[in-house]
Structure formats: structure tokens, C-alpha cells
Amino acid sequence: MAWTDVATWVGTGLAIISMGVAIWQASQAKTAAAHAEEMRDEVANRNAHSELSGLNGALGAAIRAMDKYGPGAGPGSRRGCSPDNDAASVRALAGEMTRLRTVLVEKLGNEVSDVITNVNQLLIRFAATSDVKERDERGCDIYLEIVEFSANVKKQLDANIYK
Questions:
Q1: Which of 62, 114, 127, 146 has the fewest CB atoms within 10 Å, counting from its CB?
Q2: pLDDT digit string (tens) for 9-54?
Q3: Residue 82 phi, psi (nearest 5)
Q4: What domains are there in the chain, each with its CATH number?
Q5: d(Cα 93, Cα 144) in Å, to the nearest integer?
Q6: From CA 129, how far away is CA 37, in angstroms rounded?
């Protein structure tokens, strides 16, 4: 056996060992990539949950502001209230919903855009009314819209908590 034959066998052995190391490293990289993707999804989910929790606070404030216009509320419940302040709470909610539109659509579906549009249109009608009866009706419409949306947000928040 010549020295070239020995060198060929040694080179072949080193190539096989190198191939094994490369396969092992590729397997480790694939596992690490899958783990990194899981962690990224977890961080994104926690961020979305945090954003929804913040929105839930704005929803609560808007519901409390518009509660006096809700079903079963009488004129006495609106005594001393300011429709402008009530509308400001709902405007703040609509602004927050617009800011979080991407997260809301991802978590709740495309209907969120319709809800934002409806709330904004109802606010415009609420502010434009000069008749107390019509303003009360628009206030009730806003109240019902945001209460329904609030239930969907709370359902999504509960789904994240009780997995």
C-alpha cells in the first residue's frame, strides 16, 4: 500500500467525519430555529394580550360614559351629564381601536374595521343631533356597539389566559 492510498483513506475518513459533524450542526440549527420561532410567537402573543388589556380599560371607560344612554336608562340618569364628555370617552376608544387595528384584526377578525367605522359614524351622528331624544337614541346605539365589542375583546383575553 502506497502512501497515496493511506492519504486517500485518511482523507475519506475525515470527509465522513466532517459530514457527520455538518449533519449534527444542521440538526442543532433546525432545533434552535424552531425554538426561536416559538419564542417569537410567544412574545407576539403576549404583546397582543397586553395591547388588548389596555384597550379593555378604554372600553370600560367608554361603556361607563355611555351607560346612561343604554337600554332601560331614563332621562333621570342623564341629568347633569355632559354629552361632549361622553363622546370624548368614545372618541378616545375609537382612536385606540384605530391604533390597534392590526392586532384587533389578527385576534378578532376583519369585522373590527366595521366596528371602528360604525362607532365613528355613530359619534358623528351623536354630536350632530340637536334633539335630545335623537341624541339619546344615538347614545344607546353607541352603547350597544361598544358593549358587544367589549364582550368579544374579553372573550379573546380569557382565551389567552385559560389556554
A1: 114
A2: 988 999 999 999 999 999 999 998 998 898 887 887 777 777 777 7
A3: -115, 110
A4: 40-161 (1.20.120)
A5: 14
A6: 52
